Amino acid sequence: MEKSPGFHGSDLEAAAAFYQLSPDEVVRFGANVNPLGFPESVKQILAGRLDVLGAYPDRDYRALRQAIAGYCRADMENIIVGNGSTELISLLIQARKARHALVIAPTYSEYDRELGLNGGDIDYFYLLEEEDFVLDAERLSRKIREGYDFVILCNPNNPTSSAVKNGDIVRILDVLTETGGFLMIDETYVEFAPDPDAVTSVPLTGIYANLMVLRGVSKFFAAPGLRLGYGITGSPSLMKELHRLQNPWSLSSIGALAGELLFQDKDYIRRTRTLITKERERMYQALLSMPGFHPFLPSANFILVRLEKPGLTSAQVFDALMRRKMMIRDCSSFQSLGGEYIRFCIMLPEDNTRLLLALSSL
To answer: Which among 225, 224, 243 is positioned nearest to 235, based on CA atoms?
Structure first.
């Protein structure tokens, strides 16, 4: 077989085709999606409510925003919904007219793309391996004072799975308030954190006008196809500008209804947190005792691992696991990860055990 090209975590179909496998038989350890799948209870309700497709959604999405407000403990008037968090990232960068942006890296590549489309300059603040990829708020504060009008932080971060606590976020916001800068926080993975309340910056949106928090349902609620994202900011002027830039009805009627149901499914939320918490700790401890693999302490639903076996590369690990019908993420494409790193998310217990056994045999 020819040499495997690099695949993104969501490129299951392309990777399966390359390895001559059916996508349905490959365990998706690279996608970071909740292994419980889309909630069955919500599926059943939606199946009986397809009539909503015959009408436009509420232009203001009031019922959905109210459900999000209850879920996040935020003010409904501070919430905007959109066609995935990607749309809201784009709108925010446009609204803020970001000209000199600082991105905390390594991280999600879409930030670079949207900043580039807006024509701004991009610099990077690199998380350091010697600090276990945990953000140093004081070092970042010094960097911000060099002059940046827009800072992007993924928290917990992808691919490092490290998280920044509330206290350090406050320190960063105080510096940005002094310098006139703005902070965008992508909280795609915050609901998976061991203590989400210690990590989320949603409560700070009621205090700082130079902050917007973005989330979505793709990962935690296993619903990437819904394209439902939401943002929270306490700045009325920013919210007004976002609405001015946004196309009307950017979210479908069925997407809005699904969102209302998802945020109120307490049983699914509880089961997800129980599964991820237990399996994340089990896998982390197993990797700590496995020669040749160095895991970094995870706060999200995935684990970053440095390969330490001589001659073993991330590409080789990806290839070996795909041949066993397991797809992880080869992290060689992430900026500033200079060594050999892999990332994989927490799946169902039996699948996690298969992965651990496969890694131990390499």
So the answer is: 243
